[in-house]
């Protein structure tokens, strides 16, 4: 963890330092949910010969061949829905969750990580996604009890 202040999300050097420690400890993949601090994490992952996963937007281009994927937060989906609701006079305040079913989240596959993800892996990921959307696989909702199982 890089800290709890806004600066924690804007310190690539700290990200690199923490990632190097994790690499020395034997990790294979680092998932960096750390804003621009992640830039240091991704560089250290490349230098250490391991994979990294980006977050929020597609960051695969930052370290091609190192970025296994990026977890996408498709905020444009919620933004468009809110705008359309407002235009139609139907907007209501409140929390609105957007998961896989609503295309609120996803993963990035492009020319920068395609060589890392086989067609079989992609098919398995999409099959799991379909099972989550259908409810066959239950994903714990943190907002239910503010706990991770």
Could you describe the 3D structure shown?
The chain is an alpha/beta fold and 149 residues long. The mean pLDDT is 93. The chain has a single domain (6-136), classed as Rossmann fold. The protein is globular. It is 38% helix and 13% strand.
Topology (elements, then pairings):
Layout: H1 12-24, E1 29-31, H2 38-48, E2 51-56, E3 67-73, H3 75-87, E4 105-107, H4 119-134, H5 142-145
Parallel strand pairs: 1-2, 2-3
Antiparallel strand pairs: 3-4
Helix pairs in contact: 1-2
Which secondary-structure class do the elements indicate? alpha/beta
The helix fraction, in percent, is 25-40%
Mean pLDDT: 93
CATH T-level fold name: Rossmann fold
Give the percentage of residues in beta strands: 5-15%
Multimeric organization: single chain
CATH architecture: 3-Layer(aba) Sandwich
Low-confidence stretches: none
- How many strand segments? 4
Report the sheet with the most strands, covering strand number, pairing sense and barrel closure.
Answer: 4 strands, mixed
Q: How large is the count of helical segments?
A: 5
Instruction: Summarize the helix and strand pattern as letters.
Output: HEHEEHEHH
Radius of gyration: 18 Å
CATH class category: Alpha Beta
Shape: globular
Give the terminus-to-terminus CA distance.
20 Å
């Amino acid at each position: 963890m890089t800290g709890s202040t806004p600066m924690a999300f804007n310190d690539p050097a700290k990200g690199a330092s923490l990632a190097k420690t994790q690499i020395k400890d034997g990790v294979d993949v680092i998932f960096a949910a750390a804003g621009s601090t992640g830039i240091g994490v991704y560089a250290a992952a490349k230098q250490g010969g391991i994979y990294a996963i980006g977050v929020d937007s597609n960051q695969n281009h930052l370290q091609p061949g190192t970025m296994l994927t990026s977890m996408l937060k498709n905020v444009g989906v919620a933004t468009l829905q809110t705008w359309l609701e407002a235009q139609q006079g139907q907007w209501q305040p409140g929390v609105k969750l957007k998961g896989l079913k609503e295309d609120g989240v996803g993963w990035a596959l492009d020319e920068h990580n395609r060589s890392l993800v086989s067609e079989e892996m992609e098919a398995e990921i999409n099959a799991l996604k379909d099972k989550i959307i259908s409810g066959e696989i239950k994903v714990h909702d943190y907002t239910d009890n503010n706990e991770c199982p």
